[in-house]
Design brief:
This protein is of the alpha/beta class. The chain folds into two domains: about 160 residues, Rossmann fold; about 90 residues, ProC C-terminal domain-like (ProC C-terminal domain-like fold). The protein has ten helices and eight strands. Helix 5 packs across helix 10 and helix 6 packs antiparallel against helix 7. The two termini are about 35 Å apart.
């Protein structure tokens, strides 16, 4: 980083951890020689100049900021002493107090980037313990700004909800795309044609929303006002329970996020 802070990523060889590292390097926020990355089995062949290790305590000892990017199921076995370090967790469900108690530091953050971090388009909400100072908060915001947009929120309850809403990232649009593609194939379209048509819908919609910077609801209302084929489809989807299905899915994601934080410590 610009002030040469040393950064460690536990799980730097994984999908999300690797995406964060790549964003840090691509934007110039971190230098390879100041990065220590851990892996579980086979040493990854990427990020030249960074230090790779299987020893997470060694990683913590070499770092000013430690990002924990492991599966929540693997969290109970993570036993390191990060005293004096700023620890940022990107694990769903693990509470601030759990992080503080198990890793022996009061400067802890819960953050939820999503898979779009890989292309710099993640939205990352984060919440911090009261022990962070302004310099810490600036560092957290700068780290996740390299992956897209980021906001500090005020409570862990907000993070739990946003785990499902924003943390799911491209999964929800992909679910819609899959349903549309399957319908087209069932009607006799070649899978390649169906996929190109659906990809254009999803990618084009995202780009249009980004460029126009308007509320998605305004886009829906504009099509409804035309009373054409799109309006007919929207009205039929809503009548079939589309809005209720989305609410149900988000409620289940929220419940799962809270449950994941109940895993016992090692």
């Amino acid at each position: 980083m610009s002030d040469n802070l040393k950064l460690g990523v536990i799980g730097g060889g994984g999908w999300l951890g690797g995406a964060i590292v790549a964003s840090l390097l691509d934007t110039g926020l971190a230098d390879p020689e100041h990065l220590t990355l851990s892996y579980r089995s086979e040493r990854p062949d990427r990020f030249p100049g960074a230090r790779w290790t299987r020893d997470n305590q060694q990683l913590a000892d070499r770092s000013d900021i430690v990002i924990v990017s492991v599966r929540p199921a693997d969290w109970p076995a993570l036993a390191i002493n990060a005293q004096g370090r700023l620890v940022i967790s990107v694990m769903a469900g693990i509470r601030l107090q759990q992080l503080s108690d198990q890793l022996n530091t009061k400067r802890v953050v819960r953050a939820l980037p999503n898979a779009a971090a890989e292309v710099g388009k993640s939205y990352t909400p984060w919440v911090a313990s009261s022990d962070l100072d302004d310099r810490d908060r600036l560092a957290v915001q700068r780290i996740f700004a390299t992956c897209g947009n980021a906001d500090e929120v005020t409570s862990e309850a907000e993070i739990d909800y946003l785990t499902g809403l924003a943390g799911s990232g491209p999964a929800f649009p992909a679910l819609l795309a899959t349903a549309m593609m399957n319908d087209a194939i069932k009607r006799g379209f070649h899978p390649d044609v169906a996929r190109r048509a659906v990809d254009a819908v999803i990618v084009g919609a995202g780009r249009l929303v980004e460029l126009r910077d308007e509320c998605p609801g305004d886009t829906v209302e504009r099509f409804l006002s035309y009373q054409g084929t799109t309006a007919a489809a929207i009205e039929a989807m809503r009548s079939a329970g589309f809005d209720a299905a989305v609410r149900c899915g988000l409620a289940q994601a929220l419940e799962k996020s809270v449950d994941m934080g109940n895993c016992p410590a090692s």
